[in-house]
């Protein structure tokens, strides 16, 4: 077998000469490059894969008989080819034998690998598929060569066998496929065919999370976190970029997989100028001197190059997106894990929220193009090497431009990180504050602080936008620097090489300049984002390296053990032995700040299986002692020894922690459901009657921070949770203070008394309280006053300090059940809301819109007219008599290029600075106003995470993704219009395809958008539960750790994270599907173009201009549709905010336009006539009765907090509201005392204050003084003075005086004075209530001063009058402080009408009138002394 006929077949060629139409490769070249090299590489990579799979378990048995038969047949054919080569080959003996031998070896590898991949891997063999796909293309080329070179019988036989092997190889490809993604092979992945079923679902119906594909198990958060933890433990702390290194090690394989496809993509892209050069030379050659085979070859090369670009790009971005979302899973799970381990003093939900949302998103955006860094650098180097071969020394000009741009980019990079960090910190602060105020909105409204809080958050938003503008200015300059090589390099190059230019040189050089400039543009533009991502990684690293909570408690199994003897009798209490202690503390100093201890020199024993009661005045350290027992005090000295069996503690914090889920789920937490135990604890905590009155019972949702429950109800749910947990050690931190007297007594008897549940369980109990009424039941008493003053049994204390009240049984009820907000309409989810664009642009100034349109069209014109100008220039200089000189063309060319940069810079300024500032401010202000003005029902039915997501994720989209998509869409659209015009100049026939092209593009985006729009909404919605879980964990961190829920919380977070990953990852995948589809469209356009150019002989200059534009047209067209779809999906954030504002009905109704005078109320009279109030929607019609939800056909009995109340309160009258509860029998539907004092619970009938109709809650809150049950404060870091006087109308002297009045001045002075930053966590619960009272006193004093200023000392407004609302203002203080607060209220608010809710009978007896309520109705009113003597009266029973 000679296979001879060409003089150079024995050379490396690569092209033949004098045979086969001069359109073929040499046989030696094909044997080496098409057989030996690919098979050798495959065998080298295949062997490790075979070794790996052989160690994996078998997951599929049987099948694949046909596949095995074809592999065996293929191997026999290769063996026959080897034998024939050994026997018959002559001239190419060495190459034929060696290539046939390696091919046979590869056939054996294929057999083994195909079997192992089928039986031991869920995914088809990607390596095998890649090898088969590449070699079959090479084999087709060799088959053609062999048949053309065959002349003898042996040669024809060899060619037949080779053809048969090629056909069998193609059949092997067909049998290597499955679907969807986790079982998809190379071709399904490369063409994104595994997404087709999802697209059909999204096109035909509304998608839900259940319709999305499950997450690939290799991307599961727990798997990824386990890998990260291994490397985190090995990494030294505080190492620069330590987290980046650890993450790269954990994800080394996913991060490296895109390298191969990226190399292939670059190779295909560099084939474009070679194709252009060959095509122009072919067109310049006369037809009679050129072969038609060359034209066909160019057509085939075009198809191969552009489909190669599409396919390699698709695989590259598929692998890259997988790596990025693996990184998201790693980082978010790491942030949560650290959150669970953080110290209580460092528990900052704003930091965790921002890091896991905004920072992680920017990391993904910045690192998504990480492989472009090295790939574009290589491409720039290659282009710089190829350019001098074409234009000689002139190549130095673009390199000078590149060096200058690199220098400028380096300078720019120095400010990128700091500006990005400053912006993220502003965002973090705003999101954290917003999240906090959403949970506290009820109490903020009562306190009248919503105005200052709204102004504060809006100002923070303005500051955030201003800081972000500095970072966006960096982005703008990076864009200009990135486009400078593209615009300036051609001018410089052609200016130096003007005398040597012709048509081919100009356009070939331009193609190389594009290959030089486009990668540089990507590089320079990605540097700020790349630096920003490392800044965000550094922020996360700082968070992860913060000190974790360290349990300072030590275990002593021999010295301390749980008692097994029964509860002692009362006579045995003094003889509790030390060895029966559950905990010992000696030499203890504990506090919340480094140098300021709250507890000093603590020496304490907590006896096993006994009730220990801790008492003390306000700020004595009771709550700190509870945290010490849990091992949670941030700063601890001394020795704390516990039993080794103390792995779980039933803990009730002073501020009840409830997650936004059902009552049952709050009680059982992460424990298994035990029906008997569950009923036992709800009976003990007096919840049975409450649950029976709710339509959904214990499946009722409690709302964010338990907003649907009263304070006492929240406490009892927390008690039930502590009782349910399987623990013999329980700690209760002043949990009874929120209960009224009879309910408190009943709960205490059921839980803590000698016959109570905990005594029956033989449990060790620590109960902190300021009340002394339960001391007779205590086995051990600890009295605190920053140190243990005394401790012992009950009779070691003064018996006169407490009395033993008679037990009275009672119950409290739930306010409402949680409703679910109505979802967006199905039609809008599928088709989108066209009005949202009008809504967005109406928040932007009209000249902004005009500027965007004008400068985008200008940029599109100049950037494309440059190509046409090159056509005129090249034709003119090629003519015998040029019309214009080279400087003429260079000058205008430079002008057009400069105009391109000018338009680009201006539109960037308009969009990224002006538009973002205006729209971001207005949209945030409207959304914030919606939240501030929302009625209470909204907060009882809406998850905190949902609203937080609006102000975090959605605002991030409006600040970044949306304007970028708008900018890119407008610029690219104008550019694509120009490109289409330039391409059409080469052949009029090409214009015929444009209507079809437009129709195809319209159909693609229509088909795509129906699914992408829905998945974007699912993406945003799926993140809300994740945000909520973060918030809940931070607010209940001590409870989480005490109950041993840390690992359960981490597992639950991973589950929520994986759920949120599904739509986010699939959204990225379908965006890449769009890019691949558009690249195929461009490949078809290029194929049509080259076919027309070669067969119809188009104008050379226009063909060159068109091919130049086609080189970027694919990317631009893909970029256009991609950016438009991003615009459509990003505008979903605006749509969500618009829907939010439209759906949430403001409590400020248009008909409520009565604005009382500034001095109102002067007297404080209150008239209420037939008023009803509810946390739910209730329609009240005197002729039809009550119905819920506004449905006249519905006769559901509503849960009313106040029902048909008629009450008259005289000016200056002191009235107290009290709730009557019968013992164990009667359930009072939502007879909420808190509702009685809440001015924002909208009544359904009229009420008047000082003869003024009042139906406008915001006005009411501004003019009356109210103190809520749960004190609220401005964000941490705000000064003491600002917290006292949010409206800034007082002096420092005024503030100091009120603090001295309530006894808190020394506390403030010790922490730096009024101007020092304040953290509410440094105040005890009692101090917080005293601070709230001080705020109310200050408002009263300022109001009195203003009236004197307005009316004079003897004017009508000088009377000290007004309205004061008090809701359990002294529930968390001791008895002596309570009496002091009563004296302050009587003195400071003399003349005020006071309406108060109180459970303390001593305070009630000092009021003028008592209002007793039952089932939300007034059942008894009168002076307290008179009612206490009335036989059969409700009040007397209390």
What does this structure look like?
The protein has 1438 residues and is α/β, with parallel strands linked by helices. The protein is built from 44 helices and 22 strands. Helix 2 (65-88) packs antiparallel against helix 3 (93-120) and helix 17 packs antiparallel against helix 18. The longest helix is centred in the C-terminal third of the chain and has 51 residues, at 1046-1096.
Keywords:
six-stranded mixed β-sheet, alpha/beta, 1438 residues
Distance between the termini: 115 Å
Sheet with the most strands: spatial strand order: 6-7-8-4-9-10
Largest sheet: 6 strands, mixed
Separate helix tally = 44
Uncertain stretches of 5 or more adjacent residues:
558-579, 795-824, 1180-1198, 1220-1246, 1249-1255
SS content category: alpha/beta
* Tertiary shape: elongated
Tally of strands: 22
Helix content: 55-70%
Average of pLDDT: 77
Strand content: 5-15%
User: What is the rounded Rg?
Assistant: 39 Å
Topology at a glance:
Layout: H1 27-54, H2 65-88, H3 93-120, H4 126-149, H5 153-174, H6 186-190, H7 196-204, H8 221-234, H9 242-250, H10 252-256, H11 259-284, H12 292-341, H13 349-367, H14 370-391, H15 396-439, H16 441-447, H17 450-496, H18 503-544, E1 554-555, E2 581-593, E3 596-607, E4 611-615, H19 622-630, E5 635-642, E6 650-652, H20 663-668, H21 675-684, H22 688-692, H23 711-724, E7 729-733, H24 741-751, H25 757-760, E8 764-768, E9 780-784, E10 788-792, H26 826-831, H27 835-841, H28 846-878, H29 886-932, H30 936-941, H31 944-984, H32 993-1035, H33 1037-1042, H34 1046-1096, H35 1100-1143, E11 1166-1174, E12 1178-1181, E13 1185-1188, E14 1200-1209, E15 1214-1219, H36 1233-1237, E16 1247-1249, E17 1252-1253, H37 1257-1263, E18 1265-1267, H38 1280-1284, H39 1292-1301, H40 1305-1309, H41 1325-1351, E19 1363-1367, H42 1375-1388, E20 1393-1397, H43 1401-1404, E21 1409-1414, E22 1417-1422, H44 1424-1429
Parallel strand pairs: 1-5, 4-8, 4-9, 6-7, 7-8, 15-20, 15-21, 18-19, 19-20
Antiparallel strand pairs: 2-3, 2-5, 9-10, 11-14, 11-16, 12-13, 16-17, 21-22
């Amino acid at each position: 077998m000679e296979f001879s006929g060409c003089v150079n077949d024995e050379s490396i060629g690569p092209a033949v000469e004098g045979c086969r139409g001069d359109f073929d490769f040499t046989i030696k070249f094909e044997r080496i490059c098409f057989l030996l090299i690919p098979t050798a590489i495959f065998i080298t990579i295949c062997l490790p894969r075979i070794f790996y799979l052989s160690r994996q378990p078998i997951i599929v048995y049987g099948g694949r008989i046909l596949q095995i038969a074809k592999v065996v047949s293929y191997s026999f054919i290769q063996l026959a080819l080897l034998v024939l080569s050994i026997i018959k080959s002559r001239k190419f003996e060495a190459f034929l034998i060696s290539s046939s031998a390696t091919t046979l070896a590869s056939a054996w590898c294929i057999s083994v690998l195909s079997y192992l991949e089928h039986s031991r891997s869920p995914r088809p063999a990607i390596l095998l598929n890649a090898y088969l796909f590449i070699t079959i293309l090479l084999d087709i080329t060799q088959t053609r060569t062999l048949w053309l070179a065959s002349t003898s019988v042996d040669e024809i036989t060899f060619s037949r066998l080779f053809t048969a092997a090629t056909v069998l190889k193609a059949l092997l490809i067909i049998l290597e496929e499955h679907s969807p993604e986790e079982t998809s092979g190379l071709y399904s992945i490369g063409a994104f065919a595994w997404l087709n079923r999802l697209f059909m679902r999204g096109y035909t119906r509304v998608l839900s999370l259940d319709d999305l594909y499950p997450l690939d198990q290799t991307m599961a958060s727990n798997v990824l976190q386990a890998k990260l933890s291994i490397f985190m433990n090995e990494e030294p702390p505080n190492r620069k970029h330590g987290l980046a290194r650890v993450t790269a090690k954990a994800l080394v394989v996913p991060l490296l997989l895109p390298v191969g496809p990226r190399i292939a993509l670059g190779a295909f892209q560099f084939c474009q100028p070679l194709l252009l050069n060959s095509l122009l030379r072919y067109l310049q050659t006369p037809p009679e001197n050129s072969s038609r085979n060359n034209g066909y070859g160019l057509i085939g090369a075009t198809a191969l190059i552009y489909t190669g670009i599409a396919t390699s790009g698709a695989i590259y971005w598929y692998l890259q997106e997988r790596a990025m979302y693996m990184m998201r899973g790693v980082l978010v799970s790491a942030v949560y894990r650290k959150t669970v381990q953080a110290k209580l003093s460092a528990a900052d939900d704003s930091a965790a929220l921002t890091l896991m949302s905004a920072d992680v998103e920017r990391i993904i955006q910045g690192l998504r193009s990480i492989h472009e860094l090295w790939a574009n650098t290589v491409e720039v180097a290659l282009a710089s090497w190829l350019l001098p071969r074409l234009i000689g020394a002139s190549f130095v000009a673009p390199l000078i431009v590149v060096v200058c741009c690199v220098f400028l980019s380096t300078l720019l990079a120095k400010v990128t990180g700091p500006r990005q960090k400053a912006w993220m910190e502003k965002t973090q602060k705003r999101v954290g504050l917003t999240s906090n105020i959403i949970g506290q909105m009820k109490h903020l409204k009562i306190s009248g602080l919503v105005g200052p809080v709204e102004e504060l958050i809006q100002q923070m938003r303005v500051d955030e936008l201003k800081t972000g503008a500095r970072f966006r200015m960096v982005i703008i300059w990076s864009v200009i620097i990135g486009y400078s090589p593209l615009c300036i390099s051609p001018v410089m190059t052609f200016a130096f090489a003007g005398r040597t230019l012709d048509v081919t040189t100009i356009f070939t050089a331009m193609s190389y300049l594009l290959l030089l400039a486009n990668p540089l543009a990507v590089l320079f533009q990605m540097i700020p984002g790349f630096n920003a991502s490392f800044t965000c990684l550094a922020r996360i690293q700082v968070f992860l390296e913060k000190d974790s909570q360290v349990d300072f408690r030590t275990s002593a199994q021999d010295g301390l053990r749980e008692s097994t003897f029964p509860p002692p009798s009362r006579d045995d209490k003094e003889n509790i032995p030390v060895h029966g202690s559950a905990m010992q503390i000696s030499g203890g100093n504990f506090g919340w700040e480094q140098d300021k201890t709250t507890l000093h020199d603590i020496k304490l024993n907590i006896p096993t299986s006994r009730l220990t009661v801790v008492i003390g005045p306000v700020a004595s350290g009771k709550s700190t002692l509870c945290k010490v027992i849990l091992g949670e005090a941030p700063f601890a000295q001394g020795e704390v020894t516990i039993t080794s069996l103390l792995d779980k503690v039933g803990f009730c914090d002073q501020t009840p922690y409830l997650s936004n889920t059902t009552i049952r789920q709050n009680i059982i937490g992460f424990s298994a459901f035990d029906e008997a135990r569950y009923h036992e604890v709800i009976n003990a905590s007096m919840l049975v009657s409450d649950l029976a009155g709710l339509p959904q019972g214990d499946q009722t949702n409690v709302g964010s921070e338990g907003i649907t429950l009263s304070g006492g109800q929240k406490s009892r749910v927390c008690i039930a949770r502590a009782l349910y947990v399987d623990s013999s050690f329980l700690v209760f931190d002043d949990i009874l203070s929120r209960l009224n007297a009879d309910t408190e007594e009943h709960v205490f008897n059921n839980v803590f008394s000698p016959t109570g549940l905990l005594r029956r369980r033989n449990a060790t109990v620590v109960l902190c309280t300021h009340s002394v009424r339960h001391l007779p039941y205590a086995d051990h008493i600890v009295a605190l006053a920053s140190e243990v003053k005394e401790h012992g049994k009950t009779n070691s204390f003064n018996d006169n300090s407490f009395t033993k009240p008679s037990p009275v049984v009672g119950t409290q009820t739930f306010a409402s059940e949680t409703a679910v907000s109505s979802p967006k309409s199905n039609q809008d989810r599928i088709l989108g809301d066209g009005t949202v664009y009008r809504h967005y642009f109406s928040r932007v100034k009209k000249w902004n819109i005009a500027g965007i349109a004008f400068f985008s069209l200008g940029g599109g014109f100049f950037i494309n007219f440059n190509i046409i100008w090159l056509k005129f220039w090249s034709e003119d200089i090629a003519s015998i008599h040029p019309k214009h000189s080279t400087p003429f063309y260079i000058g205008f060319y430079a002008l057009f290029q400069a105009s391109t940069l000018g338009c680009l810079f201006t539109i960037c300024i308009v969009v990224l600075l002006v538009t973002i500032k205006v729209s971001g401010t207005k949209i945030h202000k409207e959304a914030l106003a919606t939240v501030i003005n929302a009625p209470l029902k909204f907060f009882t039915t809406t998850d905190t995470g949902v609203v937080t997501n609006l102000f975090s994720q959605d605002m991030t989209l409006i600040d970044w993704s949306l304007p970028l998509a708008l900018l890119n869409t407008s610029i690219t659209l104008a550019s694509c219009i120009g490109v289409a015009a330039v391409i059409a100049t080469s052949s009029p026939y090409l214009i015929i395809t444009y209507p079809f092209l437009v129709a195809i593009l319209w159909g693609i985006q229509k088909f795509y958008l129906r699914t992408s729009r829905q998945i974007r909404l699912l993406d945003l919605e799926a993140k809300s539960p994740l945000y909520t879980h973060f918030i809940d964990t931070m607010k209940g961190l001590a409870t989480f750790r005490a109950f041993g829920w840390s690992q359960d919380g981490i597992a639950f977070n991973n589950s929520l994270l994986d759920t949120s990953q599904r739509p986010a990852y699939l959204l990225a995948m379908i965006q890449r599907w769009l890019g691949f589809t558009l690249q195929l469209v461009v490949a078809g356009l290029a194929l049509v173009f080259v076919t027309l150019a070669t067969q119809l002989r188009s104008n050379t200059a226009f063909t060159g201009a068109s091919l130049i534009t086609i080189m970027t047209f694919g990317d631009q067209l893909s970029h256009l549709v991609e950016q438009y779809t991003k615009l459509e999906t990003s505008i979903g954030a605006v749509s969500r905010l618009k829907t939010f504002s439209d759906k949430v009905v403001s409590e400020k109704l248009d008909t409520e336009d009565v604005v009382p005078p500034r001095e109102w109320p002067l007297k404080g009279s209150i008239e209420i006539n037939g008023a009803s109030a509810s946390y739910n929607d209730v329609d009240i019609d005197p002729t039809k009765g009550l119905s819920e939800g506004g449905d006249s056909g519905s006769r559901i009995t509503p849960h009313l907090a106040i029902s048909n109340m008629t009450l008259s309160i005289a000016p200056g009258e002191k009235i107290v509201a009290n709730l009557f509860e019968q013992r164990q029998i009667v359930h009072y539907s939502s007879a909420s005392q808190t509702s009685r004092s809440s001015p924002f619970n909208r009544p359904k009938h009229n009420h008047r204050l000082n003869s003024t109709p009042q139906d406008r809650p915001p006005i009411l809150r501004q003019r009356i003084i109210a103190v809520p049950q749960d004190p609220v404060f401005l964000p941490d870091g705000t000064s003491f003075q600002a917290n006292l006087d949010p409206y800034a109308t007082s002096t420092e002297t005024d503030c100091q005086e009120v603090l001295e009045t309530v006894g808190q001045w020394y506390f403030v002075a010790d922490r730096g004075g009024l101007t020092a930053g304040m953290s509410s966590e440094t105040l005890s619960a009692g101090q917080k209530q005293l601070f709230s009272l001080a705020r109310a006193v200050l408002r009263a004093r300022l109001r009195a001063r203003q009236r004197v200023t307005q009316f004079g000392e003897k004017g009508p407004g000088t009377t000290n009058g007004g309205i004061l609302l008090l809701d359990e203002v002294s529930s968390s203080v001791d008895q002596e402080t309570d009496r002091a607060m009563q004296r302050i209220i009587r003195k400071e608010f003399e003349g005020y009408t006071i309406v108060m809710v109180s459970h303390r009978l001593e305070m009630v007896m000092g009021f003028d009138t008592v209002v007793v309520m039952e089932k939300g109705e007034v059942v008894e009113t009168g002076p307290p002394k008179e009612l206490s003597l009335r036989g059969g009266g409700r009040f007397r029973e209390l």
